[in-house]
Amino acid sequence: MAHHVAIIMDGNGRWAKKRLMPRTMGHRKGAEAARSVIEACPKLGVKILTLYAFSSENWQRPQDEVTELMQLLRHYLGKELQNLHQNKVRLCFIGNRDYLEEDIQQQLLAAEKLTQANDGLILQVALSYGSRDEMLRAVRDYAADVQAGKVAPDQLSAAKFETYLDTAGIADPDLLIRTGGEQRLSNFLLWQSAYTELYFTEILWPDFDMACLEAALAEYAKRERRFGRTEQVGEAVNVTTIHAEQV
Ligand code: IPE
Ligand code: IPE
Ligand code: MG
Q1: Which residues surround ligand 3, an ion (CB under 5 A)?
Q2: pTM for this one?
Q3: I want to staple 205 with a disulfide (CB 3.0 to 4.6 A). Which of 3, 48, 149, 179 is the partner?
Q4: Which residue's CA is minimally distant from atom 6 of ligand 1?
């Protein structure tokens, strides 16, 4: 069973292009697909869902597309928050918030605060997120703690490093899905997906639904995860269990 599923929601633009529509229509349809997948997760036993919504490189898209995506985010959060809260979803956001408009930063904080005690699905949304940026910020914060005398450089372990990442406290993804046909990670969860199972599908994100998620989970169930060991090891130890205090 996949405890944590991460999804690179790709293909919105191509979905729209095929229908001779503006790319923004693809993003709107993509937001609807996200809603149905979020609803499907608890039914399928998924406890954590991470959605890649906007990358650190997506800032380089044409200004009008970026503006439209930010507008969609405002609208989506405004409209969906109460519904998510009622469904016991705990929202958290990863990525570099400094680049987001002030009102969106406030919306994210308010959503995290409102839902922080919820015990249902953990929905982690990657916004203005890039793994390299996340790791660089972690290293800078760690270096500052070394300089302040709070930690010694030789104390840095993998588990300690993870406490400086945006995903601190969240178990690594078991399954990473990318829609839209490209077979690359595009700067998504590079540290966290060291032993994650990868699943690529040609389906464009706006067409992705519960049945597609079930198909991905069925494929995951067939995989043998070895974490560098052999199947002969007596006791199966999940690598995530060696990290303290993760959900
Ligand atoms: C993914 O769809 C959504 C974002 C990156 C924000 P794209 O907009 O990348 O769609 P394609 O890949 O051009 O079809
Ligand atoms: C990855 O898709 C980012 C998101 C889905 C948010 P991109 O469309 O930006 O990735 P590339 O450019 O194809 O690698
Ligand atoms: Mg794309």
Answers
A1: 10
A2: 0.95
A3: 179
A4: 54
DSSP 89: P
Q: Is 24 in the pocket of ligand 1 (CB under 6 A)?
A: no
CATH number, domain of 119, equals 3.40.1180.10
Distance of CA 125 to the CA centre of its chain: 5
- pLDDT at position 244: 54
118 is catalytic: no
Structural domain count, the chain: 1
Per-residue pLDDT of 205-226, as tens digits, reads 999 999 999 999 999 999 999 9
User: Is the beta carbon of 12 within 6 A of some atom in ligand 1?
Assistant: yes
In angstroms, how far is CA 59 from the centroid of its own chain? 18
Examine the residue annotation and report whether 12 is marked as an active-site residue of this protein.
Answer: no
Number of neighbours of residue 71 by Cβ within 10 angstroms: 13
Instruction: Compute the Cα dihedral for 13, 17, 19, 24 and give only its sign.
Output: positive
Letter string b/e over residues 144-171, b meaning 16 or more CB atoms within 10 A of that residue's CB = eeeeeeeeeeeeeeeeeebebbbbeebb
Q: Is 206 close to ligand 1, i.e. is its CB under 6 Å away?
A: no
CA 87 to chain CA mean position, Å: 19
* Mutation choice for ligand 1 from 9, 12, 202, CB with most ligand atoms inside 8 A: 12
Question: What pLDDT is attached to residue 90?
Answer: 98
Cβ atoms of 188 and 55 closer than 8 Å: yes
Beta bridge partners of 126: 52, 94
